[in-house]
Design goal:
Elements lengths: L6 E4 L7 H12 L4 E3 L6 E5 L3 H11 L8 E3 L15 H10 L4 E6 L6 H4 L4 E5 L4 H9 L4 E2 L14 H8 L5 E4 L10 E4 L6 E4 L5 H8 L3 E2 L1 H4 L22 E6 L2 H12 L4 E5 L11 E4 L6 H18 L3 E5 L7 H11 L4 E3 L6
Parallel strand pairs: 1-8, 2-8, 4-6, 5-9, 10-11, 12-15, 12-16, 13-14, 13-15
Antiparallel strand pairs: 2-3, 3-7, 4-7, 5-6, 9-10
Helix pairs in contact: 1-5, 10-11
Bound molecules: adenosine monophosphate (AMP) and magnesium ion (MG).
Length: 352
């Protein structure tokens, strides 16, 4: 790969500089890559209708070629250009959650190359709410593939500095719009099945979708511990979001969890992921508070930042508390377990 100079341009969401957006749009229209903020995480943008541009995304991220890209649009009219059928349920969800952190899967039109969909006959589409993202999408031609702008496998970027860590010298431009709002990738709903199926939990929860559609299922492949049951979204089978240290998620009553972690934190360079409510329970180790349990949005917002920070500190092992609320806790736990390669410990059974 040719080494490029990576320019980072700060951009003010309140007063978007049109010349910066048009520079980004120009690069995208010429088949180049631009990283930009969305409300979920930073995205690595490419023209989704240009197979060669999509190939550059896979190369820059080191992403497996069977892991399809989400196509980002800025207005409802664009959907018809790439989706062959848009069921009534999709209109209802779009009405309720677009623009926003929701991705929907549709049968694809010819215009979308297989190089964007990882060879699938379906296409994933999202309309983000972030105004910088929307301006970049419009300026880049209206259909922008934008997976998280990290090296595959690493925690997704929630700051432009994270993008620079992973993409420096690989892409020409990063737009720095400051910290993202949500911090976890979009919820993915498959609308090609009779009953819509959630393929990846996110900020838009199962309950919220049920509230709009009545009926919705969770992909069994996400919940199963059986290695032979695969999730339907190809990307969900890979270890992901992972810090360099060995991460384990500790479950059980808070007292048992703290006791278990404290027994291990004494003798190693050990990281601890805790919450404001439990911080006082830990005596040693490198303690990082990820947010407060009274507002799990704060946990979502800081999770990847904390995982990356442990990489910087060079810790060898990380123990994290678990999150299991029926709402956003599902998405947080899904990312944490993937980052941990599904290593989970029941502290109530491990008293020594
Ligand atoms: P990322 O862009 O890194 O947030 O990852 C996109 C996620 O969407 C991955 O888990 C993909 O496997 C999933 N995805 C994208 N397109 C499709 C599709 N057509 N069908 C099922 N899953 C998809
Ligand atoms: Mg990703």
């Amino acid at each position: 790969m040719i080494i490029l100079h990576t320019k980072v341009i700060k951009i003010d969401r309140e007063q978007i500089d049109a010349s910066v957006i048009s520079e980004a749009g120009q690069i995208l229209k010429e088949g180049g890559l631009v990283a930009f903020p969305t409300e979920t995480v930073y995205g690595l943008g490419a023209n989704a209708l240009d197979e060669e541009a999509a190939a550059k995304v896979y190369a820059a991220k080191g992403r497996p070629s069977d892991n399809p890209l989400i196509v980002h649009i800025a207005d409802m009219e664009s959907l018809a250009g790439i989706a062959r059928q848009v069921p009534e349920a999709a209109h209802k969800l779009a009405e309720a959650f677009w623009p926003g952190p929701l991705t929907m899967i549709f049968p694809k039109k010819e215009a979308v190359p297989c190089g964007t969909t990882g060879g699938l006959a379906t296409v994933a589409v999202r309309m983000p709410s972030d105004e910088i993202a929307r301006a970049v999408i419009r300026s880049g031609g209206g259909y922008i593939a934008a997976p998280s702008a990290n090296t595959s496998g690493r925690p997704s970027p929630t700051l432009a500095a994270h993008v620079k860590e992973d993409m420096d010298g690989k892409i020409p431009l990063i737009l720095d719009g400051g910290p993202v709002q949500i911090g976890l990738e979009s919820t993915i709903v498959d609308l090609t099945e009779e009953i819509p199926v959630i393929l990846r939990p996110g900020y838009i929860t199962l309950e919220m979708i049920k509230g709009v559609l009545g009926e919705v299922k969770m992909d069994q492949g996400l919940l199963s511990e059986d290695p032979l049951v695969h999730p339907k979204a190809p990307g969900m089978k890979y270890r992901h979001y992972a810090p360099r240290a060995d991460l384990k998620v500790v479950e059980g009553p808070a007292k048992d969890v703290a006791a278990y972690i404290n027994r291990r934190a004494a003798d190693r360079k050990t990281g601890i992921i805790c919450t404001e409510e439990t911080r006082h329970c830990y005596a040693c180790g490198m303690i990082k508070c990820v947010g407060t349990r009274t507002d799990e949005r704060s946990v979502a917002e800081h999770l990847y930042e904390v995982l990356r920070a442990f990489d910087e500190e060079g810790v060898e092992a990380i123990y994290s508390e678990s999150f299991d609320s029926p709402g956003l806790g599902q998405a947080i736990m899904n990312r944490l377990l993937k980052a941990a390669g599904h290593q989970r410990i029941d502290a109530s059974k491990e008293k020594s």
